Amino acid sequence: MKIYAYGIRDDEKPSLKEWETAHPEVEVAFTQELLTPETAKNAAGADGVVVYQQLPYTRETLQALADQGIHQMSLRNVGIDNIDLKAAKELGFKISNVAAYSPNAIAEHAAIQLARILRRSKELDAKVAKRDLRWAPTIGREVRMQTVGVVGTGRIGRVLIQILQGFGAKIVAYDIFKNPDIDKQGLYVDSLNELYAKSDVISLHVPSVKENIHMINKDSIAKMKDGVVLVNVARGDLVDTDAVVAALDSGKVSGMVMDVYENEIGIFNEDWEGKKFPDARLDDLIDRPNVLVTPHTAFYTTKAVLEMVHQSFDAAVAIANGQETRNLVKF
Ligand code: COI
Q: Locate the D-isomer specific 2-hydroxyacid dehydrogenase NAD-binding domain: which residues (predicted)?
């Protein structure tokens, strides 16, 4: 059996080596190049490909794989919103993802960045770097004094709830699929509007499906408390960036944690030093003292990367062998 992997980064190579050593029966070939209609032909002869979410996987790309007789794709990440699923279905693809590589990686990042926003760390660090060691005006707020609205109580949302409860925060949660543990704790509110009205901080942990796109917009922001803090470590298109920029300007939103951005494809995980972003709004957001931008690195821990590599290759082999895998995506 042969598995061909695209977009393998240097930080993934030790985990890949480990997996290969444990699976001598599988021939592994890989490239740093991303999967495109042009690079698809390099996978000729493979039973399946392993990729991660870096580019849109269009009908053209899927067709190019199908032309090589490849009808399976194993993602090393969780999100499948970059795949033309209609084309994938029509072309008879089996797709796996890594549904839980490390929910803690992402939840911890959200919690850490939230705490940093509340303690005004960006402003304080800038002052200290200039040798200004005065206390004022960078007085902070305590996590335990906040009501945090967690939108989405899947694996990541639930770990975040645990972490924030450790700090003593009051949690309200909303999800269309209720989790029994969260329900037992009585954390659910009945509607998003109720969550917006009650929360000092709102943290998003839902997928990018059409119902959620731009859920944070001018109208939803108007329903939130004055001075609300927004946390988005989920997907960039959940947030209407223009609406958030306007709300940061007016003070309606007092701070924002952004690990994802609406137009991040082709921008994040690239070196822009000395170059201009194609989207000037990002410059503005990065420069704001009350906005913490990270380039989709919430997931980026040694544990998560290891799980992403190992679980995706396990799934690729299982699919190629016609076996069950818990990571098969139903679409
Ligand atoms: C995901 O797993 O879906 C992520 O957002 C991580 C990234 C490597 C695409």
A: 115-298
